[in-house]
Amino acid sequence: MAHSSKDPASPSTPLLMNSDAVYAGRSVSDASSLNSEDTHGAHVQMRTESGRDGQVPLTSFIDVSSTSERVNWHNPVRNGRVTTWAKQALRVWDGPHISTYNAKLLSTYGFFVRVGTVFDIRHRWVWIQVLFLLGLMVLAGWYDTSSNPDQNSTWTSELNSASNLLSNLASFLISFYVSVVLTRWWSVREAFGGVQGGIRSLLMLIGAHTNDSEEAIEVRARLRRYCKLIHSLCIKSERGDLDLSELCTYGLIAPSEEPLLTATHQREYLVFTWMARLVAAAADAGLVTQPVASVPLLQTAIMNLRGSVGLTGMFRCSQLPFPYIHLITVIVKTNLLMIALSYGQEAGSFYTQGTYGWLVFVVFRLLLQNFFYQGLLNLHAILSKPWFDHPAHFPRHLWDRGVRADMDEAESFRHTPFDLPRPRAKSD
User: Fold this and answer.
1) What are the phi and psi torsion angles at 356 (to 5°)?
2) Which of 279, 270, 281 is closest to 297 using CA atoms?
3) Which residues of 371-407 are buried (b: 16+ CB within 10 A; e: fewer)?
4) Confidence of residue 24 (pLDDT cuts 50, 70, 90)
5) CA gap 221, 212 in Å, rounded
6) Number of C-beta neighbours around residue 306 at 10 A
7) What distances in angstroms separate CA 184 from CA 178, 224, 261, one per listed residue?
8) What does the alpha-carbon distance between residue 214 and residue 287 come to, in Å, rounded to a whole number?
9) Which runs of consecutive H residues, i.e. helices, occur in 253-388?
10) pLDDT tens across 162-190, in order?
């Protein structure tokens, strides 16, 4: 179905939008490709099959390359090659985000997984930090071997005391730190879930409280388009993406609406105003059944949806307190320095005693603690803004596609499998 060049908002053009959808920058023009198996149904199928032990890979990635081809999430054969579960688990299927994972396999074989974890280290500074700690350990070991026994005893006592103090403090504080980070991440997820739930509630109410006239059909279609637009604008705002050209191309923004949306940074709230005025105008035109009760209900649903969008914006504009994150970072880094000095003293003692095999174990302990502590710090870096392209970020493509498919089906939900009671005739 080709896109019309006419303004979808003009009265001469039917407002019932076609089933074209945008998914990761690609359009789906065939309405048959938007069935439940290819959109949100793929996610349902994936969650259902995740209960079958041994059939689902450790992590399933979103396929954004094809919307007309059903994704088989557990088939080990892809592109003519048979892969093991481990290779399949680490395969990014043309999309960056992990949409689900098998908890049993993860708890069993998670040691071998790197993609999407805090140990997926690609920053140069992390390896510079490792080299610096190793150098500090060697320097402490050299000092331990070159100092006299009296100095060595005092050095060991003071170093162990400081190292134990900082290790206990870092372990205590970082446990609360991880809890705060995960709580904030879940709050962001709940806030956006409120947006999705608010959209579905509004569409349910508008479908139940309007009549079957042609004008009412156009009102419902326009509101569905506005709900799609709100959902897409919300995701774009979270990513700091102000470009509206893609939404205009796929018909979510009418030509007459584009300059109004471009001229303001409060784009979602402008659309909410249009929605509220549209509901009021529909009630004045007699398109809303029992307007005295229905209009306040519809306007309340719009306001609740606006509140959910505002809550997601609040999380976008506010982070965890800077002094708190800075303090945790300084304590963890200082603790790593003290650990390197303490392990250097141990390495010097092993070198003096001639037990060289333990030197390798000391180096391994240093590397292990460095990656664990740094991984806990990386948890905040990954989850603080979960709307981008890290594998552990929200699967926004899948969510957007599922919500749009639900909205395309919303009109069919008005059809009931039973006869509705007829209104009673008014008596004189």
Assistant:
1) -70, -25
2) 279
3) bebbbbbbbbebbebbbeebbbbbbbbbbbbbbbbbb
4) very low
5) 12
6) 20
7) 10, 31, 30
8) 10
9) 258-262, 267-284, 291-317, 322-353, 357-383
10) 888 899 999 999 999 999 999 999 999 99
